[in-house]
UniProtKB/TrEMBL annotation, chain A:
Top-level taxon of origin: Eukaryota
Family the entry assigns: Belongs to the steroid 5-alpha reductase family.
Region described as Disordered: 1-29
Protein name (Swiss-Prot/TrEMBL): Very-long-chain enoyl-CoA reductase
GO biological process: very long-chain fatty acid biosynthetic process
TrEMBL record, chain B:
Lineage, opening ranks: Eukaryota, Metazoa, Chordata, Craniata, Vertebrata
Family: Belongs to the very long-chain fatty acids dehydratase HACD family.
Catalytic activity: a very-long-chain (3R)-3-hydroxyacyl-CoA = a very-long-chain (2E)-enoyl-CoA + H2O; (3R)-hydroxyhexadecanoyl-CoA = (2E)-hexadecenoyl-CoA + H2O
Membrane topology: Multi-pass membrane protein
Listed InterPro entries: Tyr_Pase-like_PTPLA (IPR007482), Tyr_Pase_AS (IPR016130)
Annotated organism of origin: Coregonus suidteri
GO terms (BP aspect): fatty acid elongation; sphingolipid biosynthetic process; very long-chain fatty acid biosynthetic process
Protein name: Very-long-chain (3R)-3-hydroxyacyl-CoA dehydratase
Matching Pfam families: PTPLA (PF04387)
């Protein structure tokens, strides 16, 4: 009798009355915690995959995914997408069961996200590749150019400078991936590593082939052109690094609270006043500098393609910021101040 | 409904399921366009037949229809715009790839490499294209007018089974025959050293194009087969989750 009354009461009540702190169960008396029943249904075929009873109301989606994984070992939690509505958005791992708009019997629609891979693995492979590939061309390993040029060195100092800049860029990226970046999604679909690596590796090979070619033609305006481009490149590299540090400092470790980035004491971050994703702006600037420095059309193509991609990402992030924060500064543009 | 990067496929399916009520202007324009294209390709077909019946040979046939062919095949670029602005419910990329491959064949192979214009492979793919386009455009026309004769629907979703491979064979053979001439003249190619620090070898580019038929052709072919099962046989196909 008592349990029925309790259930009826909790159904009508607001969820906030049952605090997430688990109360110690009084022994040999009626249960005070109302357990949930969780049903997992395939989102497409609507087939019932699993029924869990006696689920703690304070469990998170991640706990439920872990339980589902036990009975279906081929679907590890990172691969599962649980939704309240088959066409809706996937629920976050940290969402707590009792805060969701479900009765005490919750139905989740499951879809398989496919094999997943850690984002760190993808980022590192897509950065180590270009670093090593460029060096292969720089040192003119055999079978790339005519045999008489094997292991020879270019007579243009801009070629050596370009190698240093390119390598510096990717080493910086690798270090940032290892120590600075904090990404909210733990994994991404496995096919991404093939897509991303092909993109970076093929373009790196294409650029490196021409820059390190024995018949390379140095920039038309000579030293002046190279020096100016180098300054732009370095400026933007420092800028990009500053932004990454600033973004890292926004997120306290472990917390998934999103905050609006603002200009800090570092002058390189003042661009936040005008742009939502200045890391992409600085990245574009670096590659434009590199293009002018090497005067190489493949580099220009890489810059353009990168610009298009980054603009798409920047606009997406900008849109998310605008949706998430009512008071988001209206002066900001996604990637280029006032333009894009 | 906002789509995240992973939910892209969900949003796309939503758009396909939404009932699109086209504006009257869009319908009128599309009807006009499809009638014009049907007529154009019919003219091409008749010109080809007339030439062959009069001259008894295919030599010189391409030259006689070259201008008409270039005109009507290039105009097909408009279809990409149709997809982009949404009055036709097809993927921009699929249409774009198909139109671009046609334009590439016409302008960068048969138009530029005069020596292969009298090859049989050219006649082969011209025949395939003409047949396919007449069927396709008349299908669209009748569809828009809501009076689709079954035989056109049948033709569109069945003839491709032989026409598609025949067309690919014609195109590949033509490119293959053109290769020696490309190598000899070094056309469309750029060598080092130059101030842009780039080189381009049309010969190797064509080789890559030919190789790219290997992954691309099956995908388009099976796409058409799936469409056929859906339309002619009324099968409900559960799309694989991307």
């Amino acid at each position: 009798m008592d349990t029925l009354a309790l259930e009826a009461k909790s159904n009508g009540q607001e969820k906030k009355s049952s605090a997430p702190r688990p109360r110690p169960k009084p022994p040999k008396k009626a249960k005070r915690i109302v357990y949930f029943e969780v049903e997992i249904v395939d989102a497409k075929t609507k087939e019932k995959l699993l029924l869990l009873d006696k689920v703690e109301p304070t469990s998170t989606i991640l706990d439920i995914k872990a339980l589902f994984h036990k009975s279906n070992p081929q679907w590890y939690p990172a691969r599962q997408s649980l939704r309240l509505d088959p066409k809706g958005k996937g629920l976050k791992d940290e969402d707590i069961l009792q805060t969701l708009p479900v009765g005490t019997t919750a139905s989740f629609y499951f879809s398989d996200l496919g094999a997943q891979i850690a984002w760190g693995t993808v980022f590192l492979s897509e950065c180590y590749g270009p670093l090593l590939i460029y060096l292969m061309f720089y040192f003119r390993l055999p079978f790339i150019y005519a045999p008489k040029y094997d292991f020879s060195s270019s007579k243009h100092w801009v070629v050596h400078l370009a190698c240093m800049c390119h390598s510096f860029h990717y080493v910086k990226r690798i270090l940032e991936t290892l120590f600075i970046h904090r990404i909210s999604h733990g994994t991404m679909p496995l096919r991404n590593i093939f897509k991303n690596c092909s993109y970076y590796w093929c373009f790196a090979a294409w650029m490196a082939y021409y820059i390190n070619h024995p018949l390379y033609t140095p920039p038309y305006y000579g030293q002046q052109q190279v020096k100016t481009a180098l300054i732009i490149f370095l400026f933007c590299q420092v800028g990009n690094f500053s932004i990454n540090i600033a973004l890292r400092n926004l997120k306290c470790s472990g917390s998934k609270v999103k905050k609006i980035p603002h200009p800090t004491k570092n002058p390189f971050t003042w661009i936040f006043a005008l742009v939502s994703c200045p890391n992409y702006t600085y990245e574009l600037g670096s590659w434009m500098g590199f293009t002018v420095m090497t005067q190489c059309l493949p580099v220009a193509f890489f810059t353009i393609v990168g610009f298009v991609l980054m603009t798409v990402w920047a606009r997406g992030k900008h849109r998310n910021y605008r949706k998430e924060f009512r008071d988001y500064p209206t002066l900001r543009s996604p990637i280029l101040p006032f333009i894009l | 409904m906002v789509s995240t990067e992973e939910d892209g496929s969900v949003e796309e399916k939503e758009n396909n399921n939404k009932k699109r009520t086209k504006s009257a202007i869009a319908v009128a324009w599309l009807t006009f366009y499809n009638i014009a294209m049907t007529a154009g390709w019919l003219v091409l077909a008749m010109a080809m037949m007339r030439f062959y019946l009069q001259k008894g040979t295919h030599k010189g046939l391409y030259k006689s229809i070259a201008r008409t062919l270039k005109f009507f095949q290039t105009i097909a670029l408009i279809e990409v715009v149709h997809c982009a602005i949404g009055i036709v419910r097809t993927s921009v990329i699929v249409t774009g790839v198909q139109v671009c491959s046609r334009i590439f064949m016409v302008w960068f192979i048969t138009n530029s490499i005069k020596q292969i214009q009298n090859e049989e492979s050219v006649i082969l793919f011209l025949f395939v294209w003409t047949f396919t386009e007449i069927t396709r455009y008349s299908f669209y026309t009748f569809n828009l007018l809501n009076h689709l004769p079954y035989f056109i629907k049948w033709a569109r979703y069945n003839m491709f089974i032989i026409m598609y491979p025949l067309g690919v064979a014609g195109e590949l053979l033509t490119i293959y025959t053109a290769l020696p001439y490309v190598r000899k003249t070094g056309m469309f190619s750029m060598r080092l050293p130059n101030k842009y620090n780039i080189s381009f070898d049309y010969y190797y580019f064509l080789t890559i194009v030919m190789l790219s038929y290997i992954p691309l052709f099956p995908q388009l072919y099976f796409h058409m087969l799936r469409q056929r099962r859906k339309v002619l046989l009324g099968e409900i196909i559960v799309e694989k989750d991307e």
